[in-house]
Every structure is written in C-alpha cells, then in structure tokens.
Amino acid sequence: MPDHNPGGTNLVEVEIRIDGQACRVPAGTSVAAALTIALGVRGTRASVRGMPRTMLCGMGICQECRVGIDGRAHVLACQTTCRDGMRIDTTWNPES
Asked: Which intervals hold domain 2Fe-2S ferredoxin-type (predicted)?
C-alpha cells in the first residue's frame, strides 16, 4: 500500500478486511475512502444490465456505495467510518 503518512507523524491505523483481504487505513477513514485506497476506484454495485457502478455523491443520497459490513447488507460506505476488525464485502448480489 502507498505511504499515506508522508509527514512521518505517528498515525493511528485500523486493520480492516475487504473481500477477505486484510489492509490497514488511517483511523477515521470512511469505508468509501478505504475502498479507494485499498482497491482503487472500483464498482461496488452493478446496474440492471450488469454494468459496474461506483460511489457518486459522497453524502449518502445516491446509495451507490452500498456494501456489506460485518454481515449487514446495504450499508452506505460513504457514511460509515472504518473500525478495527471490520469486514467489508463489495460483492454485489441483486437478490439480497
């Protein structure tokens, strides 16, 4: 992962799992930002035609950033702060 602490200060990080892969992000990071840091800009949902869709508004209105978190479906990634041990599932299942 790139250096997200260029100033060299003591930055507190949390460890999360995204689709089973462990990664560390600065404490206070939104899940949406963590997805971008860890995976690059990537779709978290699919349109009815199967095309990837991704985060759009950053304030919870569009609901395009819905992911599974710790077994709960349809959590808004842009409105959720990462916490240590959080499990994030970006697999979009239109049936759920």
From this structure: 12-94
